[in-house]
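Supplementary Text 2. Reproducibility record for the structural model of the 172-residue chain.

All settings were left at their defaults, and a single model was retained for analysis rather than an ensemble. We include the record here because the model underlies the residue-level annotations in Supplementary Table 4.
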Amino acid sequence: MKSLLIIAIISLTAVINTLAQTKTMNVNSLDNILNTLYAVISGEKGEARDWELFKSLFHPDAKLIPSGKNKEGKYFARFMNPDDYIERSGPWLIENGFFEKEIHRQVDTFGNITQVFSTYESFRSQADKKPFMRGINSIQLLNDGERWWIITIYWMQESVANPIPEIYLPKD
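Retained model, structure tokens:
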């Protein structure tokens, strides 16, 4: 009986360490945190998202800020924290299917802060060939010496009146 308890404790510790290491790997480099960000919100219709992993990418005071034009044609910004985003967008992502793929990245770093302009294409399914939407995520990150934190994601969709500039598109 004592042997089974010891084996159970060792197994549980191994699982906890593996999970902790996996989460740490997701935030130990700029590439990893950005790739994880796109992967965690993407999934086929009906596929649950790992919202705990999503929240682990963000600084406790982080903001997600979609922008665009309202019905009156005026530009707006809506400020959310990660929980607000999950509440507002989570059900839609699962009900409709959603894949966001980065197609270009421009990175500027000074000290421990980084600004990324990440151009994306959005699809309903991974099998789709043509995106239903494109835009730019302006992502601000902090490296606290131990890991990367997303501080802000501020984004806007492309429109006929506001196409994505060539500088933010892939070079063929």
